[in-house]
Amino acid sequence: MQMQIEDIFMTGATTPAPLRNAAFCSIWSSAQVANLRWLVQTVAIGWLMVTITASDLTVALVQASTTLPAFILSIIADTHSRRSVMIIGLSLIALASVALAGAAAFGFLSPWLILALGFIAGCGFALNDPAWHASVGDIPAAVTLMSTGYTMTRSVGPALGGVILAFLGPLAAFLFSACSNLAPLAAVLRNKWHARPSPLPAERMSTAIRDGIRFTALSSDIRATIMRATLFGLAAIAILALLPLVARDRLADDPIAYGVLFAGFGTGACVAGLNNRLLRQEWLMAIASIACAVCCISLAFTSSVPSATLALAFGGAGWIITWTGFDVWVQLASPRWVVGRTLSIYYAFLSGGMAAGSWIWGNVAQSYSLASSLELAAAALLLVAASGLVLQVHLGAEGDQQGAVFPAPSVALDLKPQSGPIAARTEYSLDESDLDSFFDHMRTRRYALARAGARDWTLQRNLRKPSHWTETFRTPAWMSFRRLHHRLSRSDQDVSQLLAALHLSEKPAETELVIERTTDARRTRSHPVPRVLRP
User: CA 405, 408, 411 angle in degrees (round to 5)?
Assistant: First the structure.
């Protein structure tokens, strides 16, 4: 079965609409089976770790082992075929689950082996998740639907894991997990889809990574979102990293109770994830962080399973609201040409924050006390809630993500993709009274060009003819210039029209393109004598 990814969103903007696409529904449904098995396995691993080791830090590092790989590998998701990346990622997850079940069957389990296999599974998640989210990330409904599907299974998976663990043992939980991994892998292998085609050849990995990092660094909204997500991950991971210790040391010390605690977390997340209409509201994100802080404080002082379960429901609600909100923010702030890379960078940083937080809170619990670790995490979450006052996000309209597919400029030379550097120069004649508007538009244009790949942008004024202004920028090669031209959105083109309207001359402002050469350049057919090119 083949599909165009954008076809998923032609059936409406409500959350269930993407399920009307057969391929999306197949992969999404199989992903829920995989989510269920992952939660069962998580409960089994968490409880197994607290029974085979007395180190609080080692128990907390279970979360770090699965999140740290995303800090290293996520950026790969948008530099290769997303479907191929998903297949590799799901294969790694399946391999780790089968190995874990085999080790349990033959009695080879140890804390470090569990952490190592968790790291391998984390590598699979680091490849699969960004690729899949980038494939269907045009509309928040699909993003929320995937997150909601995961949180729905949270209300069932942990309780099921606790029952399996209590009555059948860890081996049964690991075997269930290993078998369930086949569903998503089979769904991706069975379905094929095509992303929106590009008229340009694929970028090299180094170039793609560099362009993604530059775009992210120049986007204030994405920078703010990543910083807040990293801080939230560092603080909020204390809930999940320390939950096995809470169940063992403060509550019933029973695997079923441990599963119930996880189910409470998932139920709260499920209820909060069913409605996506408020996810972009700043005040709701702050309340979600406060809810997680209340959860940490409650876990630090309660000795009752029902009270802890209620607290975890608030924590789960805050967790899903915050993560889904950040995810939507990054996707809405990213044009389609770079969304996979921005998502990968986002996942890398938040996973790095979660891995670091697992280590920090585990260390605090081991060196001081479990209560102290949870109290400090709660204080950190309150600071994260206040960070929205400083790191604000201002998202624009949703309709400007696709890019405007303008025709490439025609040139008189037979340029190769690597020919360059290419310099662009546009001259304007302006009235003195229009300078303020001109500067405002140029500031917007400079920002847009820099994010798309322009370098060495300058604005020059003619000293002999003060009404004449010249805008210049460079790209390292002809293909780089073509990519820049392809990446500019319709709003960027609107800015160009506003600048053209300020031009006084009857002759329209034209952009001249030149290829730069040194006097040492050899004259060949592929690199002729430099001359002026006109679009």
Answer: 175
